[in-house]
Amino acid sequence: MVKSKGWDWQSADQSIWLDPAEESYYFCEKWKRQGFRSVLDLGCGLGRHSILFARYGFKVTAVDFSEYAVQRVREAESKEGLIITSKACDMVNLPFRENSFDCIFSYLAISHTDSEGFSQILSKIKDILKTDGEIYLTLCSKDTYSFKEAKYPKIDENTVIKKEEGPENNVPHFFVDLDDIKRLFEPDFELISVRHVDNCISKGIVQNNKHYHIYAKLKNEKSSYLNFSHIIGKTVSGKIDRPLGSVHPRVSSLHYPVNYGYVEGVLGGDGAEQDVYYLGEDNPVSDFAGKVIAVIHRFNDVEDKWVVAKDGYTFSREEIEQAVDFQEKFFDNDVIM
Fold first, then answer.
1. Cβ atoms < 10 Å from Cβ of 284
2. Where are the alpha helices (DSSP H) in the chain?
3. Domain-located, residue 142
4. What is the dihedral sign for C-alpha 175, 90, 57, 227?
5. What is the pLDDT along the chain (337 residues), one digit of tens a residue?
6. Same domain, 43 and 127
7. Same domain, 100 and 164
8. Which of 31, 223, 282, 319 has a 20 to 30 A CA-CA distance from 75?
9. Which of 250, 295, 253 is nearest to 276 (CA)?
10. Could you list the residue range(s) of the whole structural domain that residue 75 is in?
11. End of a domain among 192, 218, 244?
């Protein structure tokens, strides 16, 4: 597999990559009507689509290979007062758990790999989509100049390495035809629509620049049921390291309206001791003991949170959601009781 290489955004004309593509407005409206909440902007670039989805109220996660691009997304997020979870990572090694996202949007980005890399990305997409999840992505067409005529170095049947001055120099590009799309997608996805789009004139310049626009739905049913019966009802104890009224050690705007700590000796998904929201105590404390009454499963994070109630106290799902919203609003999650 070819080594991944991101765009050199600092050498690009960034102005043309700030306006969302017209298709993104359609999917903001459509996915919102369908009740989807969480979206992954895969290969987010400078964040034009991440920002749009966040404005529509989606819980947005944005990833790109370029640290520079991700930093630009964070700057835009702060400027507009939005909430976007952004990460710099390689598409062939996405750091998300199964069933993390309702939908995935990838525009002019997912082609930046080779045949082996694309197969890995598509396999991971299948894993991280929730049941009935949908994707919209674009892939380079074999019927375009870059593949047919440019004589770029070809490293496999579908992949060339671009050799030209500019942000894409030495970036791999994966190309497909309709047979490739059916072969790659149909085992696991229902192809709702596939369009072959020729961007034949751009800013008055005639060009041969074709892409496939693929809208698909996960075909294979996946269980959405999460069983935490071995945890819920368990009596635990531990330490409170962020007591009620304290401030997050790294985010000064995040105040704790409840006691928050960890269970000693039990490791969470992030490798650290298991985090706990401790409810029923109206004063700041240094330690806790009680029963686990719920698990907050985060779909777009590596760890879950336990909710522990002080002896003699009970809480409804709605009360739990309200108590932990100060922090959990940044994540796509479910309260499991």
1. 13
2. 22-33, 48-55, 67-80, 115-128, 145-148, 178-185, 317-328
3. yes
4. positive
5. 998 998 899 888 999 899 999 999 999 999 999 999 999 999 999 999 999 999 999 999 999 999 999 999 999 999 999 999 999 999 999 988 888 899 999 999 999 999 999 999 999 999 999 888 999 999 999 999 999 999 999 999 999 999 988 999 999 999 999 999 999 999 899 999 999 999 988 778 888 899 999 999 998 665 445 678 889 999 999 999 999 999 988 888 889 999 999 998 888 877 789 999 999 999 999 999 999 999 999 877 778 999 999 999 999 999 999 999 999 988 888 899 8
6. yes
7. yes
8. 31
9. 295
10. 9-218
11. 218
Q: What are the structure tokens assigned to 213, written together? A: 């626009």
Give the residue from 1, 29, 257 showing the smallest Cα distance to 116: 1
> In terms of domains, do 205 and 150 share one?
yes
Q: Which has the closest alpha carbon to 156: 183, 182, 118, 123?
A: 118
Could you give the count of Cα atoms lying within 13 Å of 51 in the half-sphere of its Cβ?
Answer: 20
Amino acid, single-letter form, for residue 330: F
Closest residue by Cα to residue 298 from 331, 261, 320:
331
Query: Residue 177 maps to which CATH number?
Result: 3.40.50.150
Instruction: Say if residue 143 is in the same domain as residue 76.
Output: yes
* Domain contains 270: yes
The domain boundary residue, chosen from 168, 183, 218:
218
8 A C-beta contact, residue 209 and residue 115: no
SS3 37: coil
Cα–Cα separations (whole angstroms), residue 89 to 22, 54, 70, 219? 26, 20, 10, 27
What is the residue whose two structure tokens read 């490791």?
Answer: 267
Tokens representing 46 are 């400078």
Q: Are residues 257 and 207 in the same domain?
A: no
Same domain, 97 and 165: yes
The verdict on 179 and 315 lying in the same domain is no
Say if CB 293 and CB 54 are below 8 A apart.
no
Query: Which contacts qualify for 269-273: CB closer than 8 Å, 24 or more apart?
Result: 269/97, 269/301, 269/302, 269/303, 269/304, 270/302, 270/303, 273/238
Number of domains in the chain: 2
